[in-house]
Design a protein that fits this description.
Layout: E1 4-12, E2 18-27, E3 32-36, H1 43-51, E4 58-63, E5 66-67, E6 78-81, H2 93-103, H3 108-121, H4 137-149, E7 155-159, H5 167-184, E8 187-192, H6 195-201, E9 204-209, E10 212-217, H7 219-224, H8 229-234, E11 241-244, H9 248-251, E12 263-266, E13 272-273, E14 282-293, E15 297-303, E16 322-328, E17 338-343, E18 349-351, E19 358-359
Parallel strand pairs: 3-8, 3-9, 6-7, 7-8
Antiparallel strand pairs: 1-2, 1-4, 4-5, 9-10, 11-12, 12-18, 13-17, 14-15, 14-17, 15-16, 18-19
Length: 361
């Protein structure tokens, strides 16, 4: 096992495109780190740089106290699980898992011991003689994970390993991966674009955007105190409502330094439907435009009147005038109804006008 430290890591491709723009991340020994962000943000490129599959333009990658920038992938003591299973179709499950060990000249008795133990952990023992075509998608992914586990590496790397699975199987495999990582206590770096997957798996969450790190920290801490409007809108489903507080009906309800901030953020679940305006909080009149019932919860999509809409768009915000409210599934205002929603002061999130800085008011 080992820690992984990225120090000002950069990647510039021929032609001048800078894919990674000075990333600093420290993953402690045994931690499960998740890199999350939209397509094209650089998360997979960063993972491939740790693996040695992409060259490093600048900075240092440290694995277990050793700078690995110039070290070949096979010598970094890492194991990688890819989005596609990459199994040999003509080989049995046992031979797929044993292949890498045999290539390294390991004795057959040790190979069998490692494969049998990984199969037991992954509940693949009864399938060791099957070929990949005889397995389900989830079983194939477990074989791919087993092939990594038998290596007993210092670091596991996962590149969107669940994206080819259906929704129900993704949930099941997500739980299995987390249980497995806790059992093995191996340092792991996992890439996904799914913020729910990231929140549920991570010990440490790295939110990326445009080749940069927007925020690093505990998933719940990031959810509760996003550092930028990008993080606020990307982490959470439905996303945080973002509104310019230059809009008069909002600005008039705030006082002090908060009234000078550029963007107000409110999580959908922090609204309540009420006729009262809480002291120091914010209340908004809405017209119900749409309703989504999802069982225990209901999502209400409301619009503010024309003269109450935001003056300017902000990075990552919802369409002008739209506000999402999450309420218990037992409540259900009618479409077209006029309602008033409010939120208390300590649930408000305030950001600078460019959305790049959180303001603690």
């Amino acid at each position: 096992m080992a820690n992984v430290t990225l120090r000002n890591v950069r990647k510039t491709y021929p032609g001048g495109f800078e894919a990674i723009k000075g990333v600093n991340v420290d993953v402690a020994d045994g931690q499960f780190c998740v890199l999350v962000g939209p397509s094209g943000c650089g998360k997979s490129t960063l993972l491939r740089m740790v693996a040695g599959l992409e060259t490093v333009t600048g900075g240092e990658i440290d694995i277990g106290g050793r700078i690995v920038n110039q070290i070949e992938p096979a010598d970094r003591d890492i194991a990688m699980v890819f989005q596609n299973y990459a199994l040999y179709p003509h080989m049995s499950v046992f031979n797929n898992m044993a292949y890498g060990l045999r290539n390294r000249g390991m004795k057959e008795a040790e190979v069998k011991t490692r494969v049998d133990e990984a199969a037991r952990v992954l509940e693949l023992t009864a399938m060791l003689e099957r070929k990949p075509r005889q397995l389900s998608g989830g079983q194939r992914q477990r074989v791919a994970m087993g092939r990594a586990i038998v290596r007993q590496p210092k670091v596991f790397l996962f590149d969107e390993p669940l994206s080819n699975l259906d929704a129900k199987l993704r949930i099941a495999m997500r739980v299995e991966i987390r249980k497995l990582q806790r059992r093995l206590s191996t340092t792991s770096i996992y890439v996904t674009h799914d913020q729910l997957e990231a929140m549920t798996l991570a010990d440490i969450l790295v939110v990326m955007n445009g080749g940069r790190v927007e925020q690093v920290g505990n998933p719940l801490a990031i959810y509760e105190k996003p550092a930028t409007t990008f993080v606020a809108s990307f982490i959470g489903a439905p996303p945080m409502n973002l509104m310019s507080i230059r809009s008069d009906e909002i600005k008039s309800q705030l006082s002090g330094s908060a009234s000078e901030a550029g963007i107000l953020g409110i999580r959908p679940e922090d609204f309540v439907i009420t006729d009262q305006t809480p002291a120091g909080g914010v209340a908004l009149p809405l017209t119900v435009e749409a309703i989504e019932r999802v069982g225990a919860e209901t999502f209400v999509y409301g619009s503010r009147a024309q003269d109450e809409q935001r003056i300017a768009a902000t990075p990552g915000e919802l369409p002008p005038g739209e506000v999402i409210v999450r309420i218990p599934g037992t409540e259900s205002p009618a479409i077209g109804a006029k309602i008033r929603v409010a939120v208390v002061r300590n649930k408000l999130h305030l950001f600078s006008g460019d959305g790049r800085t959180r303001i603690e008011a």
